[in-house]
Design brief:
single chain, 260 residues, alpha/beta, Rossmann fold, 2 domains, seven-stranded mixed beta sheet, 9 helices, binds S-adenosylmethionine
Length: 260
């Protein structure tokens, strides 16, 4: 293709050939560019996925900057907003009791739950050294690939420094041994994220009777990759009057509400 038509008097004349291959290259680069602009725009500015109630709370200054920043980076939005709606409900209905978490690791979910209700006393249960061999021994599914090295790269000192609030009470060691002495405690919300059958079973048996009316237990990973968790939850659910509510978050959390 020639940019300038050839005439014997045209001094600018030269020829430039654009091949089909170059045209295809330009089209592909154009598509990638448009996609990148769209991606950056949606990550930075498109907040349509956020529930209206959350947007309203942000506008009214009811959500701390730290919690907003965690939400922006949290990979599972459904899980995040389920936590938020449940904590908001507990506050609105004045449900008494502490928060608790079984399976803390480095404190990610503990931190966001604390920021959703910073006034609540919050009990944290973990070995802070990973799983025990005796708990791992009976596992099938994904947990059967775990060793005592998984989730061992943490420590109570690091988590304490990160969470940095006197509302947290640490119970370091093997659960349920670490719950001894707390028999008369009442809980409003318990987040269970211990991955294995034994602690999940023990957690349900320990926390459910101590749950305030209207209180909630949320158990993570109720899906076929985690047969130990599914069995512990299903066996326990068969012994209580309340139904299980399965959530559509990425790993299927399941919730148990204590009847009022
Ligand atoms: C998946 S991690 C928890 C993740 C955490 N919720 C977060 O936000 O990152 C599972 C944790 O459960 C703890 N755990 C499992 N069985 C336990 C037991 N019987 N007693 C105490 N901690 C246990 C492990 O030490 C590990 O830190």
């Amino acid at each position: 293709m020639s940019l300038y038509p050839y005439t014997p008097t045209n001094p600018n004349h030269h020829t430039m050939k654009i091949t089909l291959f170059q045209i295809a290259e330009l089209v592909i680069i154009g598509i990638i560019f448009v996609y990148l602009v769209y991606y950056v725009y949606t990550v930075l500015f498109d907040k349509k996925y956020q529930p209206k109630a959350w947007q309203d709370a942000v506008k009214r200054g009811k959500v701390s900057r730290q919690l907003q920043s965690i939400e922006r980076n949290y990979p599972d939005k459904v899980r995040f907003f389920n936590f938020w709606f449940q904590v908001e409900r507990l506050k609105k209905e004045n449900i008494p009791g502490f928060f608790a978490e079984l399976g803390v690791y480095k404190g990610d979910s503990a931190l966001l739950l604390h920021l959703m209700d910073p006034a609540r006393e919050f009990h944290l249960f973990d070995t802070f050294e990973g799983f025990t061999q005796s708990d791992l021994a009976r596992e099938t599914g994904k947990a059967a690939t775990y060793t005592t090295k998984n989730f061992a790269d943490t420590s109570i000192e690091k988590v304490r420094a990160r969470l940095n609030s006197d509302k947290f009470v640490f119970h370091k060691g093997y659960f349920p041994d670490t719950a001894a002495g707390m028999e008369n405690t009442q809980f409003a919300l318990v987040n269970m994220d211990a991955d294995l059958y034994n602690p999940t079973k023990a957690g349900l048996e320990y926390f459910y009777p101590r749950l305030a009316p209207g209180g909630i237990i949320i158990i993570h990973d109720y899906n076929p990759d985690w047969p130990g968790i599914m069995k512990a939850v299903d066996d326990f659910a068969a012994t209580i009057p309340e139904p299980l509510i399965v959530m559509p978050d990425q790993d299927s959390s399941v919730m148990i509400f204590k009847s009022k």
